[in-house]
Amino acid sequence: MRRNSLGGRLVLATLAFCLLFTVVVAALRTWSAWQNNVAAMSGELQLIAQVYQRTLSKSIWDMDRESLQAHLTSAANVASVGQVVVSLQSSNRAPEVFQRRREGWRPSTLAPVLHVKLDYEAFPGSREAVGEFSLYGDERVLWQRLRAEMVAIVATQVAQSLLLASLIMLMFSRLVTVHVRRIAQHLSQLTPLNLDTKLTLERDRRRQDELSLLVSGVNQLQGNLSDYLERQQRDEKELIAHRDNLAALVRERTLELEKTNDRLESANAMLDGLARTDPLTGLANRRHFDETKEIEFRRAQRNGQPLSLLVCDIDEFKRYNDAYGHAKGDQCLRAVARAIESTCARAGELVSRIGGEEFAVLLPGTDAQTGTLLATQLLQAVAELGIAHRDSGTAPFITVSIGLAQFDAERMQSFDALFEQADTALYLAKSRGRNQVAVAEPQKSLDDKWS
Ligand SMILES: Nc1nc2c(ncn2[C@@H]2O[C@H](COP(=O)(O)OP(=O)(O)OP(=O)(O)O)[C@@H](O)[C@H]2O)c(=O)[nH]1
Fold first, then answer.
1. Would you say the CB of residue 321 lies under 6 angstroms from ligand 1?
2. Which range among 123-137, 259-273, 392-406 has the greatest average pLDDT?
3. 356 C-beta closer than 6 A to ligand 1
4. What is the pLDDT of residue 451?
5. What is the distance, to the nearest Å, from the Cα of residue 286 to the centroid of all Cα atoms in its chain?
6. Of 8, 22, 199, 258, which residue is least crowded by CB atoms under 10 Å?
7. Which residues cross the membrane (predicted)?
8. How is the beta sheet containing 113-121 ordered, strand by strand?
9. Which residues contact 108 (CB under 8 A, 6 or more apart)?
10. What are the b/e assignments for 109-144, b being 16+ CB within 10 Å?
11. How far is CA 221 from the centre of its chain?
């Protein structure tokens, strides 16, 4: 028997109850047996008294002491008798007492005592009291009889209890335990894949009790779980389909967004380029020049590298416009721009149109000497364009004047100072007759600083 089995606990509880019941019943039956024994002993004493009453009375009447003694001894030998006493009736002296007692007998309050008057009828109609006959029951006999009965009582009660416990155990095991184990085994083997396997018990299907309720409850639960899982799987499939659709939609939208972004970026780049380009010549415009000049100026300040600036202006351009018209003037501007661009084409060099017929060339990493060389080549390149200018007082073709200044870290704290020097040099080139380069020398005073 397993200690933790329900059947075992039930049997233990039954046994405990039966033990208690046995004790109570045995006590009641013992008390009852005692009462019966006492009554039986009283009956026996009465029977003995009836048997000896007449013979004793006669022995007393006849004064036959031997016979009296013999009868007393005989009565005292009866099993249930502990002591017999005969007291002789006497009117003028104390009554004479004869007694016989069984060995080891002691007076008892539990054993019955019987007192019987002895009288003798010597002749019909003359009944005379001759004494009293007392019979004392033997308590030991009562206990002896009770012991024998108690063994039987306890034995039958214990046997009854054991039988009852065994029966309960057997019934419980056959009716409950075996099915509970089957239910436990069924539940432990359940998985989402075998939820359709119904629970059945090996017993009469018509039986309707708590176990059948439990079985239908388990099967109902399995059915609900199965439905729930089916629903969940269906939902998951739908979810996956939605997710795939969503992913495709997101990819599609992302692609569209990327394309739109690309278009926007190119449009921005184009706009940016347009915003920083002079529409007439395609050169960098004033805005682009202003952005770049600060960057290059700070870089020259930081690195201590040379930075030169050329400011070019077409000579007598007003007269050109007047002579050839504005459209021709535009063409001339474009041609001069190409010439400057092709002369100053090194990486980092920035050619920009900063005014009507005025151009600026930023020459990072170029000192005044190399700048002068470049400016001279530029003069040459414009002259070689050979754009006729019949009204020019400088030459019969288009020429430019160039002012050059080099960045001086000690004296120039802003680009404006460099520009001012280049512009002043340009003014000098113009005043010296145009079509030439003037280089600013910032160390010298304003009067003698131009070469
Ligand atoms: N065709 C054309 N002409 C322009 C443009 N921008 C400015 N101009 C002209 O350029 C001329 C500049 O004249 P001035 O500033 O007097 O200078 P200049 O006549 O070149 O005289 P110097 O500079 O002293 O040699 C003006 O007549 C402007 O109208 C342009 O985009 N296209």
1. yes
2. 392-406
3. yes
4. 43
5. 67
6. 258
7. 150-172
8. 96-101, 81-88, 127-137, 113-121
9. 82, 136, 137, 139
10. eebbbbebebebeeeeeeeeebbbbbbbbbbbbbee
11. 25
Q: For residue range 222-235, list pLDDT tens digits in order.
A: 999 999 999 999 99
β-pairing verdict for 400-406 and 437-439: parallel
User: Is the pLDDT confidence value at 92 over 80?
Assistant: no
Rounded (5°) CA angle 325-330-336: 125
CB of 326 shorter than 6 A to ligand 1: yes
Are 435 and 399 spatial neighbours (Cβ–Cβ below 8 Å)?
yes
Residue located nearest, by CA, to atom 18 of ligand 1? 316
Sheet holding 400-406, edge to edge: 350-353, 358-364, 307-314, 400-406, 437-439
The answer to whether the CB of 278 is under 6 A from ligand 1 is no
Q: Could you identify the atom of ligand 1 that is nearest to the CA of residue 326?
A: 1
Does the pLDDT value for residue 240 go beyond 50? yes
Quick one: pLDDT band at residue 96, thresholds 50, 70, 90?
confident
| Strand, helix or coil for residue 107 | coil
- Among 334, 357, 394, name the best residue to mutate to test ligand 1's pocket (greatest count of ligand atoms within 8 A of Cβ): 357
Can you tell me the mean pLDDT for 57-73? Answer: 90
Answer for the pair 438, 429: CB distance below 8 angstroms, yes or no.
Answer: yes
The CB of 357 under 6 Å from ligand 1? The reply is: yes
Give 307-334 pLDDT, tens digit per residue. Answer: 999 999 999 999 999 999 999 999 999 9
Bridge partners (DSSP) of residue 402 are 312, 437
Instruction: Give the pLDDT confidence score for residue 4 in this predicted structure.
Output: 64
How many CB atoms lie under 10 A from the CB of residue 96?
A: 13
Cα-to-centroid distance, 321 and ligand 1 (Å): 7
pLDDT at 310: 97
Q: Verify whether ligand 1 is closer than 6 Å to residue 315 (CB atom).
A: yes
pLDDT band at 449 (very low <50, low <70, confident <90, very high): very low
Q: Which of 47, 43, 33, 28 is nearest to 112 (CA)?
A: 43
Percentages helix, strand, coil for the chain (3-state, rounded to 5) are 60, 15, 25
Q: Is the CB of 317 under 6 A from ligand 1?
A: yes
- Which tens digit of pLDDT belongs to each residue from 383-411? 999 999 999 999 999 999 999 999 998 88
Measured CA distances, 224 to 154, 229, 233 (Å): 57, 9, 14
- Residue with CA at minimum distance from ligand 1 atom 22: 316
Q: In Å, what is the CA distance from 439 to each residue of 1, 337, 352, 410?
A: 121, 21, 20, 18
